Amino acid sequence: MAIVIERAAKTVSEAAISACEELGIPRSEVDIEVLQEASKGVLGIGSRNAKIRVTVKNENLSEKGLRSKKALESILNYLIPTFSVELKEGPEKIRLDIKDTNDKGLLIGKRGEMIKSLEYVVGKIAGRDCEDGRDKRVAIDVDGYKRRREDNISKLVKETAQKVRKMKKPISLEPMSASERRIAYLTLKREGGVSYETKIEQEEKRIIITPLTKG
Prior knowledge:
Layout: E1 4-9, H1 12-23, E2 30-36, E3 50-56, H2 63-79, E4 84-89, E5 93-99, H3 104-108, H4 113-127, E6 137-142, H5 145-167, E7 171-172, H6 178-189, E8 194-201, E9 204-211
Parallel strand pairs: 5-6
Antiparallel strand pairs: 1-3, 2-3, 4-5, 7-9, 8-9
């Protein structure tokens, strides 16, 4: 269902600018219907504002998705000088990808900790008093970092499982976040000849890959 809002201002142009700023999207991504033209009246008597109805062209976007993009852009304006944010939505997830910035390291943080913090804050801001898209989870990425990280984890797990089978000795993986461990578990389920368990070492969770013993 498309998002529709109505706004009034002294001119149609001002009303359109106000609506697009509120939605956080450019004018090219909305349809504008003029409901009422502005009128100066006579000697100020009978003057009226212009009134428009603005419809977001992309029907897959939710109110929470647009709020999320706007909230993230507001936060980034305080952190870095240049960036762009791309918004995509699915049935369960709002995806925000930060691009065109030279401050990737700052935004990613150690093992993606900054990304997780941004996801939490943006999700809280966007979900406040919001019905449309309320249950969708906000997922933020920085220029494809998460995809590259997932590929690297999967590759690491496969190589480690191969070493475990060859050496017939358990090997401990590096500490991982909950989302990273899920990727590792999915990869390990496709690997034969090994088992695995998760242990806490110095307040960090590690996956231990162990060779299967023939019974």
